[in-house]
Amino acid sequence: MRIGEILQAKQTQGVVTITPEAGVRELIAMLAEHNIGALIVSRDGEHLDGIVSERDVVRHLHHDGTVINNTVGAIMTDVVETCTTDDTLDDVMGSMTRRRFRHVPVVEDGLAVGIVSIGDLVKHKIEQLEFERDQLDHYVHQS
Question: I need a surface site. Which of 76, 92, 122, 137 has the fewest CB within 10 A?
């Protein structure tokens, strides 16, 4: 299964972005509003400048109680591992597991086209395994 198929199956299409100049309060509000765990950081709404997650807020809160007064640019990750719509579920899931992150932006031709979470990938992996199990079960009981 390819990442493009996973993006197409997501309930929410499109990319939710936030600018580096936005405040952390705005970030928290957007995460809650969209019920998501991370946002792509983009100055123009199309190109990837970074990623910011609820984990970033919590980690900075631990070190600096005034993080709520900062900008997204102050807490975001600016060196971001990305994937493309042609990457496989297994490759991206393996990378996420090894590198211990939960969200990967999907980029095509330099533009952010989506984001996948470990939850998205696990959901599709389970569906894939259930389909294979059902096919094997059908084959065994058909004979």
Answer: 137
Give the domain ranges of the chain.
3-142
> Would you say the C-alpha torsion 39, 42, 44, 46 has a positive or negative sign?
negative
Number of H helices, E strands in the chain: 6, 5
Phi, psi of 73 (to 5 degrees): -60, -25
Q: Please state, in angstroms and rounded to a whole number, the distance separating the CA atoms of residues 120 and 93.
A: 10
Distance (Å, rounded) from C-alpha 83 to C-alpha 76? 18
- Residues pairing with 108 in the sheet: 111
Please check whether residue 27 is in contact with residue 39, taking contact to mean a CB–CB distance below 8 angstroms: yes
pTM for the model stands at 0.86
Region 3-142: CATH code: 3.10.580.10
pLDDT per residue as tens digits for the range 80-95: 999 999 999 999 999 9
